[in-house]
Design a protein that fits this description.
This protein has 14 helices and 13 strands. It is of the alpha/beta class and 355 residues long. Helix 6 packs parallel to helix 7, helix 9 crosses helix 10 and helix 13 packs across helix 14. The N and C termini lie far apart (53 Å). About 4% of the residues have low confidence.
Amino acid sequence: MTEEERFARLLLHYGNIKDRRGFARDCLSGVITACRVLDDPVLCAHYGVAVSSVARERAHNDWRTARSLGLRVLTPADAAWFLPPIPGVQPIPGVQPIPGFRPPGVLFARGRLGEVLPPKILCIVGSRAASRWATDLARDCASSLAAAGWVIVSGGALGVDGAAHEGALEASGRTWVFLGSGLLAPYPARHAGLFARVVSGDGCLFSANHLYGKPDKAFFVQRNAFMAACASAVVVVEASSVSGSLHTARFALRWKKPVLAQPGSAGCNRILLEGARPFRDLDELVNGLGRGGADGGGTLDENKIPLQGGLFPEEIAARTGNTLTEVFQQLQIGELNGEVLRLPGGRYLNLRYPE
């Protein structure tokens, strides 16, 4: 990709495109280029492109700054791109499209990324106001799994996020930080030293915000989606009922990704009811990841409970290959969703799926 085309992608990223899917499809298939669209009023009208003077100035300033500091301006056309593509638009080896996920047009990166997609990416998230026990667990989990070759992904926040990054660094492993602020105004400021160590090590900082963008709720939710989309699995260590980490977990659950949560806190308990699997310590986490987390064993959807007569939980466990704890969790979720009925005597009946 030429530098002119890359800058044009940045300009359009800061602008507005009504038909973003159509633009991405035609651009990545070679039908058009970003440069051509910007130069052609008819194409601009076709895709609904509008770039304000403020967006143009910001794009020019950020482009010059990125070039001078050696920051990478990644686009979905790059070999190093790792976020899932728009379904039906661009095949990426080893990365499956996710229905409903909208990748950014541009992603700023600072640090060591490489050109090969890591095979194992683990997202560890949790409360900012985490207990000492939770941060210790997050650090230990990240350290052990980073040493085993996992890339540890988190949002760089205080509490669990920071502990996860620290653990990966202690193991001389790789860790990625997805920021809700701009790459050159990383938030929180208290983690400036941590972010510097990530960049100087084998890690990387990412942001779809403009380089000096301030923290913004919309960008935090967006970065949570990015983390869930690129991760092989998501782990929630400790979370309140309003923790932002629940966004990440719910994105992952929606996209059928493995989610594991540490029981006890209100947010984790909620996620467990919604479909996550429990883990109590590092050994259980490693075992859960080995089974594929939330999608690892049989589920109520895939291993069907009969329409008549019902089954006891022990029989369901034998049929699905799940543990009794996992079966009881799935049955709770099924009852909440109106898919399973608990009969007198302890049997469970399928209300939705035929045999």
